[in-house]
């Protein structure tokens, strides 16, 4: 067993070294820690020997929910999509670390790209009226007294479009989104919280980077 | 008259009319009715009463004139009834009257006592109508609703005067109604509850009756369906008591409640079940503020369930709200009582603001908004209920059914109307709430008159956004806040719109949430709209400042900076600054200054401190929190936008000595000087202003010179268009020029020439400083000539006619300084400057008086024909002598100095003596003020020259105190005292006094002084004493 873990450690170290060369914001030790955390989150493979591709949607969502306090299904799916770059419905170790790099420590530019990707539900590189409506539909208390209970949300979508749709094509391109966010940073998470707050980042990093180093 | 008398008037238990305003006006109405009766209704006036009205009168026989038979003290009228009985009979003290014509005659006779007569008559004839018309008519009259029966009665009464009787009856009835409605008008001006309120309340309660099992009440109804035009349902004679209507309410758990709603409040009555009941109007319970309070206390079931109703729900949909406004307005138009239409509107306006307060949310802790609490607009039971906090998650869960919600909305609207007392309702309340009340009025008056019709489109857009803010989760809230930022928030329309639709409450509530982005968005809006005075006040009134202060502790830098920036705007008035301090804001702000890494946070902290530093206590608090060294460190910043608030704060605080010392000792003078050369006017101004305040201290002045600050100060004089900057720069130059070394330096840069150029066409704040500087410059002989050559004398003399006291003090000082130069003096004299200075002695300010008197000294000394000049000023010498009665030592000293100069002219000294200068001077000799002693002794010395003044001083007891002056430590006192003693010693009696007081020893000591004048005066005095002694001895030898 100890031989096994020694081998494992060696393996992880090499892996960390190679990944850390491609990933921003994390040093080699931190990558190592993240790999370990990934393995913990993966749990023991059900059938030993069989290679597991990564975290599936369910597992990933429960991580988002339990560790980062996210609740909105649509947004969590969006985050999963953002992490799962190769679209294989699994977040691999590499995707995990690359994703977290932005998720936890991303620059404004990286975050703009990330958020846009989360909000672009159908992946057509535009955030359409309909997508906005979907994401915002639960954000207002309905007014049953009004003829159309969704009127408020529709209006909110229009207000948002007016503010962000610089080229007036009725949808948000990445350029629109980027420009609006640069103008007003509060618009980064315009259609729902998809980034962790400072508190949960702190807790997560402490848990992963410090507690793991003290065996 | 019957109803108004029996029911409206307030009677004491002993059957007297109480002295209430209502009774007084009732009496007056009756009096004028009686007075005019015989002229307006001659036929009815002849009608003979069934029974005479009789009362004890104050009238006596002599008061009656013709038309009366007077025998002894008894009086009978000529006018008799058909049976030959007189219609008026007086057998003192009782008078019997049997017709209205006699009544009105009597009232005329009573003249100024007529009111008392009417009062006595009514008090002793509690049922006048019965006596006038007989009991059957009176009964009908009391029942007010019956016209028909009268004719029947008339038939029964077969007497020929029945027709007259009926007419009289109608007359009395209409008069009665007239009285009541007039009284009603008066009463309605004092209402607290009003019909509209009650009506709204009823609407609410009716809705509470529906809802099957869940209903809170079983039924609610009025006792009467008829509603008067003023909205009341109570009979007129009960309305006089302020009663509005009667209700029968059937609660779920107790017996029917019979309730009276009156303007004073609501209470249970004796059981009025339907319209027109005679009895049951009495109060059988405590008085309650409003219906709901009463119901809560009477029905536990109601109390329990009404509290379960979630008041915190749901804003009013905009359309509904507008309809509501209009409906109330329409009602008002229909009301005859204009007087409180206005109040109603105000109340409603507030109520509307209140609705919008109600954020969706299930938060259980409801707090009354402190603002309304302060205003006394709340009922004590706490009906104005506002959820203060919202949590995004809870909003979702609080979706309730539409019907339930609309009930709640109606409930709220009623509650708000209900719990309000129209402003100025009762004098008692007013006085207890006076302070906050007056503030409210101030804010009320700030409101623009507005009506729904001409509101700008922004208003509606903002109203919609505020609605989304209230009903949105974090995402929607942030989006809405961003949309709101796109409005021109510096524009008053938008600022007030946000407040008026209840947005301010929401923004403030957001500050107490945990959502960083919401807080940032809210503060980004608040920091803009808080540029508006009214918004600032409202933020403080709503307790928003506390929340903002709390945010200063946040770990998020953006939040800290935004909060500080908002505080900088809000803390522009005293109450706000105090609030910041009381909630520990000063310490937190000082802590922000320590954020070296984040310039923006420190800058905003400095901005906020700058605003706060306008209160003295805050200056102290900043110092205690260790702010001074931090400010000193930031003073080295290269950023202009950092330096401005930092220097601004420093110059504001430099009014305190502790700061001035710190600025000097902690090396800040260097930085201030350095920034004088900045290219930002504002920064230059604050630096100059700080130097202005600090340079009273010599060391600071020297430091300014050392760091080469004088030249930049002079260059600032070129920016003559920026008056604030000019005032600060000239101020700094003035204070710096107190050091002669600085004057020399200034002269190198031709400061004086520039300053003289600033003597005309400048605001007073600049002039004060320019003239002050000239006064200091003119201490140097060269400067005096320069001022003259630059043409400075004339504008200076012109300024003597001003009224600004600070300016006058400086001008007289400068003129005085210039007058020490003979050529200058010639010009001053030519411009009649001495007369102008002299007349300033009449100025009420002691500073101006003394400064003028000091200025007179060199004028008199250097004028060509001073004696003649002084004599030409009519009344001038008397004025001077009279100022010796001043209580201000500086004034006294200056006047003594002037007298010393004037007395050099014998003729003028004679006039001074005539005006009694000697005893006045003698009276002052007991002073211990060395400055005064010196000039007093000088004046005494000079005044000795005339006539018997030497002896007079001796007789007035001036010699002995003068001897004591020799013990003073001030050598200038010694000099003038020695001179005075020398003069006084020419009178033998004075020599004896001096000798007795031991003057010789100190004088001999003084003779050893290096000062020749002093030596001579002392020696002269001793010589006189010796001569007297010798003469004495000789005389003794001789005889």
TrEMBL record, chain A:
<feature type="domain" description="EF-hand">
    <location>
        <begin position="71"/>
        <end position="106"/>
    </location>
</feature>
<dbReference type="Pfam" id="PF13499">
    <property type="entry name" value="EF-hand_7"/>
</dbReference>
<keyword id="KW-0677">Repeat</keyword>
<feature type="domain" description="EF-hand">
    <location>
        <begin position="152"/>
        <end position="187"/>
    </location>
</feature>
<keyword id="KW-0106">Calcium</keyword>
<dbReference type="InterPro" id="IPR028846">
    <property type="entry name" value="Recoverin"/>
</dbReference>
<dbReference type="InterPro" id="IPR018247">
    <property type="entry name" value="EF_Hand_1_Ca_BS"/>
</dbReference>
<protein>
    <submittedName>
        <fullName>Calaxin</fullName>
    </submittedName>
</protein>
<feature type="domain" description="EF-hand">
    <location>
        <begin position="107"/>
        <end position="142"/>
    </location>
</feature>
<dbReference type="InterPro" id="IPR011992">
    <property type="entry name" value="EF-hand-dom_pair"/>
</dbReference>
<dbReference type="Pfam" id="PF13202">
    <property type="entry name" value="EF-hand_5"/>
</dbReference>
<dbReference type="InterPro" id="IPR002048">
    <property type="entry name" value="EF_hand_dom"/>
</dbReference>
<keyword id="KW-0479">Metal-binding</keyword>
<dbReference type="GO" id="GO:0005509">
    <property type="term" value="F:calcium ion binding"/>
</dbReference>
Automatic annotation (TrEMBL), chain B:
<dbReference type="InterPro" id="IPR016024">
    <property type="entry name" value="ARM-type_fold"/>
</dbReference>
<feature type="repeat" description="ARM">
    <location>
        <begin position="584"/>
        <end position="627"/>
    </location>
</feature>
<feature type="repeat" description="ARM">
    <location>
        <begin position="543"/>
        <end position="585"/>
    </location>
</feature>
<protein>
    <submittedName>
        <fullName>Outer dynein arm docking complex subunit 2</fullName>
    </submittedName>
</protein>
<feature type="repeat" description="ARM">
    <location>
        <begin position="875"/>
        <end position="917"/>
    </location>
</feature>
<feature type="compositionally biased region" description="Basic and acidic residues">
    <location>
        <begin position="341"/>
        <end position="352"/>
    </location>
</feature>
<feature type="region of interest" description="Disordered">
    <location>
        <begin position="327"/>
        <end position="365"/>
    </location>
</feature>
<dbReference type="GO" id="GO:0061371">
    <property type="term" value="P:determination of heart left/right asymmetry"/>
</dbReference>
<dbReference type="InterPro" id="IPR023231">
    <property type="entry name" value="GSKIP_dom_sf"/>
</dbReference>
<dbReference type="InterPro" id="IPR000225">
    <property type="entry name" value="Armadillo"/>
</dbReference>
<feature type="repeat" description="ARM">
    <location>
        <begin position="957"/>
        <end position="990"/>
    </location>
</feature>
<dbReference type="InterPro" id="IPR011989">
    <property type="entry name" value="ARM-like"/>
</dbReference>
<dbReference type="Pfam" id="PF00514">
    <property type="entry name" value="Arm"/>
</dbReference>
<feature type="region of interest" description="Disordered">
    <location>
        <begin position="428"/>
        <end position="455"/>
    </location>
</feature>
